[in-house]
Design brief:
Elements lengths: L1 H45 L11 H6 L1 H8 L9 H6 L1 H25 L23 E3 L14 H5 L8 H6 L7 E3 L1 H6 L7
Antiparallel strand pairs: 1-2
Helix pairs in contact: 1-3
């Protein structure tokens, strides 16, 4: 017993450090599980028979406010959020709202790239500039074009990830409309293309 008293303070300090390491490891594992659940939900949304209209890249999907909350959520019993993402009606409504807002911002920003900044129309018959057949884009970073050598469509632009980048670089890459330029070859073919 006298020997223990000599090292008691050191043992106490090591026990506190050990508990802190264990707690940190558990928190990191729980965070990784929640991020994996969000990635799995994203994959599920992309592979549905009737997929959501347009999805951003996974890194942008993670930045949506509801996904930030789900990834940062602290839970004692269950480290994952997969069940909530699948079946919680409120979470799904918030996600739908977040995705709609993201799409509208992307639509507006890409309309500006095409030369239609602030485009609005009261007519339901007028097609939004990014949804027109002549609306094609090229990535400035990788000069990527869509299928068949044509420019990228709005849907492809929203989900575009530059080729030739490793997984970490793609994860850090933020999506921005400034990464794209109009495919002028497609626009030149169209007689009706002019900013209005």
């Amino acid at each position: 017993m006298p020997d223990y008293m000599l090292i008691r303070d050191q043992v106490d300090q090591e026990m506190v450090e050990h508990r802190a390491r264990v707690a940190r490891r558990e928190a990191e594992a729980a965070f990784k599980k929640r991020r994996d659940d969000v990635a799995a939900h994203y994959t599920r949304l992309k592979s549905e028979p009737n997929p959501v209209e347009v999805l951003p890249t996974l890194s942008e999907f993670r930045k949506l406010s509801v996904m930030k909350v789900m990834q940062g959520k602290a839970s004692d019993k269950d480290a994952g959020v997969g069940k909530e993402l699948k079946s919680n009606k409120l979470v799904n409504e918030l996600l739908t709202d977040n995705l709609n807002r993201w799409r509208e911002e992307a639509r507006s920003a890409l309309a500006g790239v095409l030369g239609f900044p602030g485009w609005k129309s009261a007519s339901k018959k007028k097609v939004h500039p990014v949804d027109r057949l002549t609306a094609r884009f090229i990535c400035k970073k990788c000069s990527s074009k869509g299928k068949g050598g044509e420019g990228l469509t709005f849907t492809e632009v929203c989900g575009h990830r530059c080729v030739g980048m490793n997984k970490k670089q793609r994860a850090r890459e933020a999506w921005s409309s400034s990464l794209f330029e109009p495919d002028v070859k497609v626009l030149a073919v169209s007689d009706s293309w002019s900013p209005r």
